[in-house]
Amino acid sequence: MVRAICLVVALVLALPVAAQANGDPASDVLLTDTLFVPYQAPSREQVDKLRGVIDKAREAGQPVRVAIIHSPRDLGAVPALFGHPREYAELLRGELVNPVEPGARGSRVPLLVVMAAGFATGNVPPEVDRKLRGIEVSSDASPDDLVAAAGYGLQELAKANGKPIPATFSKPEAEGGGGALPVILIVVALAAVLTVLIVIRVRGQAETDT
After folding, report:
1. Please, are residues 187 and 163 in contact by the beta-carbon 8 Å criterion?
2. What is 2-160's CATH number?
């Protein structure tokens, strides 16, 4: 509940700034480009691969705008939305009223937002949005990881909309259930060490008593 209240406050504070100053960088870039990449630049090879997927999707009849967010800095005047891809996608969708896209109508151009917190969309059918939100992204994803995740998400978006394109990117790897394994191993190791220390102390005490 507290988290939800904080998020609402953040949105209320952020929206007027964005509306007046167009303060998040992606909203400027995506008016004329199909891709916004984070300030901590991913590799040129990965970006070129993603642009190739975006081009293939457009040729197949699936135009799209892609925003990749790696840190709060990438959100400009609305850093409070970092970690909240759905809320940011809604804000960005409203700002992209008339992106330049041949054959597409203004704000109806689909939007794909990718953060370590997951995927979000704009202007896509609800069932497609749900499918993309089900794709997990590692919480410590690098810029290259996020680019790869965006490529996979776009492939899934095109397929779900009946516009399949050749697969270039694989499904991103998330921590899943394995994230707790190191913690479990540490706890077990500490318990073992503690047990040994107790045994040594008990034996030492027994020898002293005798």
Report:
1. no
2. 3.10.310
